[in-house]
């Protein structure tokens, strides 16, 4: 089982960025815990602040990985290019948000990703990434 976890802009600052919304744990720290919990899963973590790079990474992994767990950050609410990349590859994608985007500003209520994803998890903190991975593991 090969899974890609892909984070978009500003998520490299997790642990430092608005901790009341996103918590105090860096993604690297969380990813270490996650990989040690699932030693048999080939899990790769990538992050980029750039829309085109995120598209390139989806193309790169989207034909031979079993699942992509994607938090596109703010691009969730704006990016036709990332939505098209998800539609264009074979690997299923689950959309994850750390915060409950529906309880925040109105512009965060719209996801360009959602219709091309298997499903969405929002508001469950970092745990959302593990829940998405578990879904793929049970397929
Ligand atoms: C986010 C929610 C987005 O609205 C925001 O722009 C982010 C993080 C989340 O994980 O809660 O960067 O995707």
Automatic annotation (TrEMBL):
Chain residues that bind substrate: 71, 77, 84, 98-99, 108
An example Gene Ontology molecular-function term: 3-dehydroquinate dehydratase activity
Group of enzyme by EC: lyase
Residue numbers annotated as active site: 22, 97
Enzyme Commission code: 4.2.1.10
Marked site (Transition state stabilizer) residue numbers: 17
UniProt KW keywords: Amino-acid biosynthesis, Aromatic amino acid biosynthesis, Lyase
Pathway terms, separated by semicolons: Metabolic intermediate biosynthesis; chorismate biosynthesis; chorismate from D-erythrose 4-phosphate and phosphoenolpyruvate: step 3/7
Keyword Magnesium appears in the UniProt entry: no
InterPro entries: DHquinase_II, DHquinase_II_CS, DHquinase_II_sf
Catalyzed chemical reaction(s): 3-dehydroquinate = 3-dehydroshikimate + H2O
TM stretches of this protein: none
Subunit: Homododecamer.
NCBIfam families: aroQ, PRK05395.1-2, PRK05395.1-3, PRK05395.1-4
Family as reported in the entry's similarity comment: Belongs to the type-II 3-dehydroquinase family.
Function recorded in the entry: Catalyzes a trans-dehydration via an enolate intermediate.
Protein name: 3-dehydroquinate dehydratase
Organism of derivation: Flammeovirga kamogawensis
């Amino acid at each position: 089982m090969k899974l890609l976890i892909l984070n978009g802009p500003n998520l490299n600052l997790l642990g430092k960025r608005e901790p009341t919304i996103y918590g105090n744990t860096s993604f690297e720290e969380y990813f270490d815990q996650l990989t040690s919990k699932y030693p048999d899963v080939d899990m790769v973590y990538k992050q980029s602040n750039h829309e085109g790079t995120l598209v390139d990474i989806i193309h790169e992994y989207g034909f031979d990985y079993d699942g992509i767990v994607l938090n596109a950050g703010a691009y969730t609410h704006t990016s036709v290019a990332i939505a098209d990349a998800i539609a264009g590859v074979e690997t299923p994608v689950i959309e994850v948000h750390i915060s409950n985007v529906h309880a925040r500003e109105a512009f965060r209520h719209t996801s360009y990703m959602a219709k091309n994803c298997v499903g969405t998890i929002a508001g469950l903190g970092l745990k959302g990434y593990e829940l998405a991975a578990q879904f793929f593991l049970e397929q």
